[in-house]
Design a protein that fits this description.
Helices cover 31% and strands 23% of the residues. It contains seven helices and eight strands; from the N terminus they run βαβαβαβααββββαα. The radius of gyration is 24 Å and the shape is globular.
Length: 227
Amino acid sequence: MPVPATLTVSRNPLLSQHEVTKVDVSEIEAATVFTRSRPTKKRELRDLRQKQNAAAAIAELTRDVEIYGFTKGQFGLLQLTEALLDVIGPAHVSLSTWTAARHEIQSMAKLVQAGKLTGMRWLIDFTFSRRDPEAAHQIRQTFGLDCIRVAQTHAKFALFENADWQVVLRTSMNLNMNPRFEDFTIAHDIELAAFLRALLDDIWTRQKRSLADAAGRDQRQHFARDL
């Protein structure tokens, strides 16, 4: 006579009754790094794969709107910068990029001459000066000898600051034309701007400007040890 099949349900340890562990928050040693206290902004998601230009991409930007854009590479970080300065007025820019093309650097210099760009500092990958020393020289000639710091970096963002706006642009774009899918997020964000400004200030303080021209070994050691 066959034995009837039986189903045994094992007890899920995640659902078992046990005493809840309580943690005293005051005993946690790790400090809070960044806390967002502002109300959530209205976020607009924009599909920009057609023929939209940079001005259209950030049209109707206000202090209460965050824009996420997805492009097909028909405009780049330079064009976004130009369009944004037209909206917010003259501003100081802090830029983190892996690389930059000479044409874009020249165009940034024209923005300085036009009074739209009041100053700029550049955080660049330490291979940039070796890949294109003339471009690095061009940056210093336009923005001052202290405008460059180097790191082993792939972070790409820009901080635009004036009396009325604190705009953060986060993006996949480097400062060159690259006709492929790219994306960006742009918003007036006082807290995030302050966080990034403090981070860059710390890098500028810890690193001597002469390191940008040092040997790659020295730059890598500085990055690993001091940043």
